[in-house]
Amino acid sequence: MLYLGCAVWAFPGWVGDFYPAKSSPGKFLQLYGERLTAVEGNTTFYSIPDQITVKRWAAQVPEGFRFCPKLPRAYSHQGPLLPHLPAALKFLEIMAPWGNKLGPVFIQLPPTYSPAAMADLRAFLQGWPVQTVPVSVEVRHLGWFQPEPAQALNVLLKSLGVGRVLLDTRPIYDPMEDGQGDPQIQSERRKPKVPLQPVVTAPFTLVRYISHPEFDLNEPYLTEWVARLNQWLNQGTDVYVFVHCPDEAQSPEITRHLNQHLQATYNNIAPLPWDQITPDPAQLTLF
After folding, report:
1. Does the pLDDT at position 283 exceed 70?
2. Contact assessment for residue 2 and residue 229, using Cβ atoms and an 8 Å cutoff
3. Which residues have C-beta within 8 Å of that of residue 284, sequence separation ≥ 6?
């Protein structure tokens, strides 16, 4: 299965383009679910919704949709992970109303969490209910990308059936080396410059593609990803891809372009729900 989406659903700048003109914020999630098939769920990183809210969100999206929430930063960014395991399991109980709409949870570790914390990471993941709630880990300390720690991490994740988040920031950093401007100049939260390590460690993989706001600059990276995703899909791996952009207004269209790329090369890729929606006449420009 392939699931495609963005980091958020409540982006006002999508009104009049991705969302119909005059769409109200209360309709954003429903409209998002009518267009894409998954969402990263970045909102849970900053605050934990109550279960009533989780139930309401579940009712607003169709069957087959997947929420992939981020573990709250109160647990992932406050020293060792293991002391926060009981709270993390409580977080999963709050997410339970999503049922089969709950995709992999992902744990984004801070740049300060180094390979020296391997034992802590192992103990935390051993306490995670992997068989019922898939989980994926994103590391940011550059030590994890050195050969020995990288190999040790991959072995650990594979042994537990835990995914490794594949963060691709090349599209925003490579052009800068060729003399292009900084696409994150207006961004409040800059993405880390870390090496891409496209390794699958579980029956699923979760890709975070940080796109360049200039559409054409993404083409070589998307072409590369299509070949890689085709291989994984052919091997029976469930694939989740979330497209970010320093200018989030561009993210949905880049997501759609990736799906169209995949459709052209992989017979079993369905159109996005978005492609089956009749355009709102108010959104069409007449010449």
Report:
1. no
2. yes
3. none
